[in-house]
Amino acid sequence: MKAFLRWGAILLIGLPLWGCITDYGPVATDALPIRPLAVASSLQTGDDLKVIVFGEDQLSGIYQISPAGTVIMPLIGAVPAAGRTVIEVERAITRAYANGKFLQEPKISVSVTTFRPIYVFGEVGQPGKYSYTSGTDVLAAVATAGGFTYRASKASVLIRHAGDDTWQEYSLAAPVLIEPGDLIRVPERYF
Predict the structure, then answer these.
(1) Which of 61, 71, 164, 174 is deepest in the core (most CB within 10 A)?
(2) 95: left (phi over 0), alpha (psi -120 to 50) or beta
(3) Is residue 8 part of a domain?
(4) pLDDT per residue as tens digits for the range 125-177
(5) Is the backbone of residue 19 left (phi > 0), alpha (psi -120 to 50) or beta?
(6) Are 138 and 147 contacting, i.e. CB atoms less than 8 angstroms apart?
């Protein structure tokens, strides 16, 4: 009789909770420190760059980093950009214009106009794709996505950084900075 009651209690409590589980992939269980904001250190596919070639208006413009990780510039073609800093891309474009004998002493300026978007989903009011703004933290991203639903866990959030295969759980007790391309999932609380 005790075994029957024990199994009955397990089924009564366990089955409703089992239906709440969703699997979006592996979650790292070790509490890693918050990664430093790497926005200034690496450009990635999907970022838009404003390239100004001083004295050559027809070469200046806004260029997107292609899926191949390059910026296609007039006259010089593809310049590697993904995984590089803005300064490195600026120097590479300058060298390419100088080495190709297209410009004498080219003066180039590169800046990021638009970073790749972030995605907020789970227990938020309006899940979806949102523009990244430098210095944004998780709470600001959740507020942009309509805030927490009444079922949302307000203790932690799951983030999968661009290029990572696992979700990382972060406590919301301290500010958590996000990076361009992050997937932010607000889990459901159980009680």
Answers:
(1) 71
(2) alpha
(3) no
(4) 999 999 998 888 999 999 999 999 999 999 999 999 887 889 999 999 888 99
(5) alpha
(6) no
Instruction: Write out the H or E segment, with its range, that includes residue 125.
Output: none
CA gap 96, 87 in Å, rounded: 14
Among 98, 114, 130, the domain-final residue is 114
More confident residue, 31 or 160: 160
Stated length of the chain: 191
Domain boundary among 114, 139, 156: 114
Two tokens at 82? 């993904």
Token pair recorded at residue 69: 């990780």
Please check whether residue 153 is in contact with residue 112, taking contact to mean a CB–CB distance below 8 angstroms: no
Strands (E), 131-179: 156-160, 167-171
Give me the number of domains the chain comprises: 2
- CA triplet 46, 86, 73: central angle to 5 degrees? 65
The total of other beta-carbon atoms located within 10 Å of residue 171's CB is 11
Range of the domain at 61: 48-114
